[in-house]
Amino acid sequence: MKRYLFIISLSYAECENLYLTTVKTVVVTATTGERVQIPSIRLRPFVEPSGIKGKFCLTVNGENKIQSFERVTG
Known about the structure:
Layout: E1 2-10, H1 12-15, E2 25-29, E3 35-39, E4 52-60, E5 66-72
Antiparallel strand pairs: 1-4, 2-3, 4-5
């Protein structure tokens, strides 16, 4: 399994795009510099009135299927 750590900082207005049917994926840059494509539906649960802010961890299996996606502390 492979883990990607990244930081997201989006305003609420920017998060509104996550709910458009035309925006199916979001590309983020991991702390290692790798670019990772994530389904926008995975970010929706983390939208707050201020937007999305925090450090996240994406874990994928050997076939690049998402095993977990969560906010991490620290």
